[in-house]
């Protein structure tokens, strides 16, 4: 698979990505636990069919110490016993927030209330924003057919 264009080498794309990357850095430094951030990025990327981001975030999570068992079970988190209640709430919000077009009402009040039990307001803002950012990255990579498999942890900073 070859990308449709050299997105990462394009000057305009470089400007766009600097802004998205700045938002991503702010979120990485937020009080939302990094483990939850990576799980949410992986799940949204799986749903969107973004191999590039799935590759990146599973490798980054593994490099940070996440177990292979948990990484292998993200797609089946509902049936897996390895996720905490907070992680489950974040994964549910990630799924509903990523699949907005599939759900007539968007994110349900129940999913929101469950997330609000586990996260404070700053963490909820970070979670919502993280979903916006990863979905933007996913869409860029899927539209451009950015190939997956060559990412090295820490490659982008």
TrEMBL record:
**Any idea what this protein is called?**
Carboxymuconolactone decarboxylase family protein
Query: Can you give the residue ranges of the Carboxymuconolactone decarboxylase-like domain?
Result: 25-95
| InterPro entries registered for this protein in UniProt | AhpD-like, AhpD_core, CMD-like
Q: Which NCBIfam families match?
A: ahpD_dom
Superkingdom in the source lineage: Bacteria
Q: Name one GO molecular function term.
A: peroxiredoxin activity
Signal peptide from the UniProt entry: none
Species of provenance: Streptomyces chartreusis
């Amino acid at each position: 698979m070859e990308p449709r264009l050299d997105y990462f080498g394009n000057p305009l794309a470089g400007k766009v990505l600097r802004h998205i990357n700045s938002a991503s850095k702010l979120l990485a430094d937020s009080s939302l636990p990094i483990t939850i951030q990576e799980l949410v990025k992986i799940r949204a990327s799986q749903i969107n069919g973004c191999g590039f981001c799935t590759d990146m975030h599973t490798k980054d999570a593994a490099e940070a110490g996440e177990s292979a068992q948990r990484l292998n079970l993200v797609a089946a988190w509902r049936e897996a016993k390895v996720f905490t209640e907070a992680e489950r709430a974040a994964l549910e919000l990630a799924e509903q927030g990523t699949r907005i077009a599939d759900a007539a009402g968007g994110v349900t009040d129940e999913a929101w209330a469950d997330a609000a039990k586990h996260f404070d307001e700053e963490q909820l803002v970070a979670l919502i924003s993280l979903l916006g950012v990863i979905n933007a990255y996913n869409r860029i990579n899927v539209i451009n057919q950015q190939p997956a498999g060559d990412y090295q942890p820490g490659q982008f900073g």
